[in-house]
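Appendix C: a fully annotated inverse folding record. The material below is reproduced so that readers can follow the format used throughout the book. The structure is listed first as tokens, followed by the designed sequence.
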């Protein structure tokens, strides 16, 4: 019992540290020119892959805090990015149990479609509030970039953090050990 609780705390601390690192990568001056394309949404990719594998170790309050931190550090409209991140990741959390038997290609497609819905929601909210909005092509390019990087994030979490496939959530592994 104590080892399961400590393991959960370590994983929650790990996703927190990785989320902060993802935010710092976005806010760091990387020598990219002003007209260069934006980086993929590393925070969303991290949280999507993590929540589909270990939904219990990335609680709602943590996702909300990381989303607000992203809005503050990246200069987005305060709360809009956090709200869409929260809605998207909570949808993925609801799908985590049913994702176990699906192939990775369907998981990848679902994560990309959820991100597309998040971007569209942000776009509509900004349009309705008469805020300046980037061209739709910028949003589409960002969607494609983020979707293409998702398998790399899953591989990094699989081999770096030993997060298993969605089928391993809540059940014993091949040796009968419960995570």
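Designed amino acids, in order:
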């Amino acid at each position: 019992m104590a080892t399961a609780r400590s393991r959960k705390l370590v994983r929650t601390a790990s996703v927190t540290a990785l989320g902060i690192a993802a935010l710092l990568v976005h806010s760091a001056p990387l020598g990219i020119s002003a007209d260069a394309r934006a980086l993929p949404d590393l925070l969303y990719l991290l949280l999507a892959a993590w929540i589909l594998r270990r939904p219990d170790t990335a609680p709602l309050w943590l996702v909300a805090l990381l989303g607000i931190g992203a809005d503050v550090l990246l200069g987005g409209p305060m709360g809009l990015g956090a709200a869409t991140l929260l809605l998207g990741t909570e949808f993925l959390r609801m799908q985590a149990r049913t994702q176990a038997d699906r192939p990775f290609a369907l998981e990848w497609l679902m994560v990309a479609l959820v991100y597309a819905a998040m971007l569209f929601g942000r776009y509509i909210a900004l349009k309705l509030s008469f805020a300046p909005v980037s061209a739709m092509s910028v949003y589409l390019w960002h969607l494609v970039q983020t979707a293409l990087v998702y398998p790399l994030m899953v591989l990094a979490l699989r081999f770096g953090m030993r997060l298993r496939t969605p089928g391993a959530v809540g059940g014993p592994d091949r040796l009968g050990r419960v995570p």
